[in-house]
Design brief:
about 0% helix, globular, about 190 residues, 12 strands, mainly beta
Length: about 190
């Protein structure tokens, strides 16, 4: 097809209620209200997720491991794509170069593959050109005071089960509502 110089409807998605669209360097993808993923564009490394390496000018539904999975969001990097299900599962496909798919190898995948993320429920995914980031809620299991005031607060060392790996994170907690044990999601703290 030729380039469009003005916006126009994507005929292949007519009748689908599209909730979200993502664009990568070479491919695009859309998620429908029903949680289905459609993709189109170049397909050098299988980044469309159709089990082949055929470039598509029009959207086609991605199946395979996504069959029966309700996808909440899809995102596209350079030659790879990522879907996050409503259950917090991460599916990846496309170029595995530099281990970017997080599957423990650098193999390309032409179909969606479930990525194991240490038993965590992922709430967000983001990509750069060649990196995948997955975010999970972290719980603060322990706050240990550390040497007095800092900017009107107190420095603390955190310990918990989240993906944070910094020995110190500046956190401001509203303790007026705290009753009983101190155990709050880091998302509710002011980081």
């Amino acid at each position: 097809e030729e380039d469009a110089l003005v916006p126009k409807p994507v005929e292949a998605l007519k009748g689908c209620e599209v909730r979200q669209v993502a664009c990568g360097a070479y491919q695009s993808a859309a998620v429908t209200r029903a949680g289905e993923v459609f993709s189109w564009g170049r397909n050098d490394a299988g980044q469309l997720g159709h089990g082949d390496f055929v470039t598509r000018a029009t959207p086609a539904r991605v199946g395979g491991a996504l069959e029966g999975v309700h996808v909440r969001v899809v995102t596209c990097g350079a030659q790879f794509s990522v879907a996050l299900s409503t259950q917090g599962q991460v599916y990846v496909w496309g170029s595995g170069s530099h281990h970017r798919l997080g599957l423990g190898d650098d193999q390309d995948r032409s179909v969606p593959t479930l990525a194991s993320v240490k038993g965590k429920d992922i709430t967000q995914v983001a990509v750069t050109e060649d990196k995948l980031l997955a975010f999970a809620p972290a719980r603060i299991a322990q706050l240990v005071p550390d040497c007095g005031p800092l900017g009107g607060g107190t420095r603390v060392n955190l310990a918990g089960d989240g993906f944070f790996e910094a020995p110190r994170i500046k956190v401001s907690l509203d303790m007026s509502a705290a009753v009983g044990e101190l155990d709050d999601e880091i998302g509710r703290a002011h980081v």
